[in-house]
Amino acid sequence: MKIMFMLTAALFLSVMLMQHNAVSMEAANESAVKSIVLPAIDSDLKEGAGKDKVATYCNICHSPDYISMQPPFPADKWSAIVHKMIVVFGAPVNEADSRTIIDYLSSNYGTGK
Ligand code: HEC
Q1: CA-angle at 45, arms to 40 and 49, nearest 5°
Q2: Is residue 42 part of a domain?
Q3: With a 6 A CB cut-off, is 85 part of the ligand 1 pocket?
Q4: 65 pLDDT exceeds 80?
């Protein structure tokens, strides 16, 4: 009778140990380095002179969809928007580049005025 109890206890212990090993292996896998793939920002800005500046500076805080989803604006409205991005939000765009960007936006997303 005693031997039966010992065998049952040994069997129970080995099952417990196997489970423990399985759990700790899972934990080890969870702590392994994982990688994720981020979607690339697909800038579908229209081709045109100054597109590179817009793609560089107007992509820092938000997607270029903020530009392409706007209705056509006259040049002074684009100028006001670009200056708001610089003055209010701190877009790091110098005066020369801001003129290039305003020209690009007015030509490609403008009303022609
Ligand atoms: C420093 C961060 C930053 C940069 C760089 C930036 N923007 Fe923005 N932009 C914002 C924020 C914040 C908003 C949202 C403003 C709001 O909700 O009123 C915004 C909104 C906009 C909008 C939506 C209309 C509006 O007036 O809110 C347009 C268009 C836009 N940005 C164009 C541009 C262009 C063009 C550039 C490149 C010169 C640019 N942004 C660069 C921060 C930035």
Answers
A1: 125
A2: no
A3: yes
A4: yes
Q: Report the C-alpha gap between 38 and 24 in whole angstroms.
A: 30
The pLDDT of residue 40 is: 65
Ligand 1 atom with the smallest distance to the CA of 54 is 37
Any domain includes 41? no
User: Within a domain: residue 45?
Assistant: no
Domain that holds residue 76: 51-109
- DSSP readout, 84-95? HHHHTT-----H
Residue nearest to atom 34 of ligand 1 (CA): 58
Q: What is the mean pLDDT of the chain?
A: 86
Domain count, the chain: 2
pTM greater than 0.85 (yes/no) = no
